[in-house]
Amino acid sequence: MNLFLEAFQWIFTPVWTIVKTERTNDIVLRLGEHLGYTFASLIAATIIAVPIGYAIGHTGKGREIAVALSGAARALPSLGLLTILALTFGIARAPIAAVVVFLVLGVPSILAGAYAGLEAIDRRTIDAARAVGMTEWQILLRVEIPLGLPLLLGGVRNAALQIVATTTLAAYIGLGGLGVYIFEGLPIRNFTEMLGGAILIALLAVVLDGVFALLQNFAIPRGVTAGRVRIVRTSSSRTRAVAGTSAVPGRG
Amino acid sequence: MNWLLNNLPLVGTLSIEHILLSVPPVIIGFVVAIPLGWLAHRFRLTRGILLTIVGLLYTIPSLALLVILPPIIGVSVLSATNVIIALSIYAVALMVRSTTDALDSVDADIIQSATAVGYSSWRRFWLVEFPIAGPVLLAGIRVVAVSTVSLVTIGAFVGVRSLGYLFINGLQRSIPLEILSGIVMTVVIALVFDRLLVLLGRVLMPWTRAVKVSKHQERAVLTAEVTA
Known about the structure:
The complex is a heterodimer. By secondary structure, chain A is mainly alpha-helical. Chain A is built from nine helices and two strands; from the N terminus they run H-E-E-H-H-H-H-H-H-H-H. Chain A has helices at 2-12, 26-59, 63-75, 78-89, 94-119, 123-131, 136-166, 179-185, 191-218, and strands at 16-19, 22-25. Chain A has a two-stranded antiparallel sheet with strand order 1-2. In chain A, helix 2 packs antiparallel against helix 7 and helix 4 crosses helix 5. In chain B, helix 2 packs antiparallel against helix 7 and helix 7 (121-151) runs antiparallel to helix 9 (176-204). By secondary structure, chain B is mainly alpha-helical. Classes of the chains: A mainly alpha, B mainly alpha.
């Protein structure tokens, strides 16, 4: 436990780095890099995944492809992908390689969140929208997207977690981020620094998860409780086991 | 191509070491998650607590966990035990969620029928609820197996040999083929694990082919397959 005390001491002992003649706390600098990579990849992944996910959710076609895709993405070792891309892109374009790897990690969760969000909507709601004369676009924009927002955000939340954790590896190809402390400490067996860095990364992940949990709560449209989706496609009147709670594991 | 031809034995041994590191966490995850998943399924209080804890555990980045864990459990950072325990924690974290969803997916009518014909709750769990939850459990364990195989590579940083060694070595020596061999073998092992689990599922749950599973269980399977 002593090691933990030392690690916390390490965290609260500021180290200053000179960036463009300005003195910056090293941890703040690394945190900035870490968040920069995380959000750049997360936004890129969202831009790619959401339209595809909505297309699958709205038409009900292509789910199998999405399942196969997320399985394949899960099997790909991120470290392998990162090293091979860093090698082929070259040092100068290593940041692009990193963002590509992280966005590949994020796409499946967001895709799943997007289409599961649309699929979990009561069929009668959509039929009603069609009956009052809404066009397919209006149904998508005014009915499906607002109602599917909580699940979509669940997917984004999942992706954010994956990405923030994996961004640790960015330091391995010299791109900074909070992983720097782990990779600096490893070869010289500086456990205090490694542990301090590890704690910072874990804390960042937990905080980010909490922020997304809050966002998810705000995203529930008024008058709708996401957890209370009734089954209409089956004959039973019992509440559905999974679809309402989330398309997201580990956190509801 | 030269590198691969000269290093086939290395790739072979690393693959075997990789497999040996991947199997225990998957088994530990499955076994430990059964009682925990049952607790989360059965009681509202334990559900909230357990699902929050596993959710938090899962947020800890793997490399960070490999460093944080040793001082807590008293093993060396460089030991294979450290990697196996860290990956088991992730496996349990994922699997508790899946097990809970799986048990939730069992139709209440079935449970009532089983109670009505005289099953005790212990026998009802093992002979009725557990087998019927099977397909969702299988989907969960497949996710765990595939992600474990891919996570084992991170152990290479702390000196635990696996196919991850090829990534680090390949980058240092600038041999893309070496890294590629590592990626391909990792994906192959993951796919073989996945197929084996599907086959095991067919052998252990022959009824899933004959009887159509209920609609909401089908959804639960799908949810388990796409998430994580």
